[in-house]
Design brief:
With 69 residues, the protein is mostly helical. The chain has 2 helices and 2 strands; from the N terminus they run βαβα. A two-stranded parallel sheet has the order 1-2. The radius of gyration is 14 Å and the shape is flat. It starts with 5 loop residues before the first strand and ends with a helix.
Amino acid sequence: MHSYSVVFPLPPWKDIYETDSERDQTFAESVEVFEGMKGWYSQWGYKTLEVPRCNIDARIAFILRHIND
């Protein structure tokens, strides 16, 4: 069994945020949920490393760099 101590939340990104039939939250609501989620993970002892707002390849590289450390 694996034990995970780090999570990689992807923050709301205003420049690309859209709503649709499945994602009906406003951007402000998504920020609230994101902050609550980070707080929940911290409360349970997880380290959160927020994934930067950049292109997908840089996001993947960020996550892989931290997983491989």
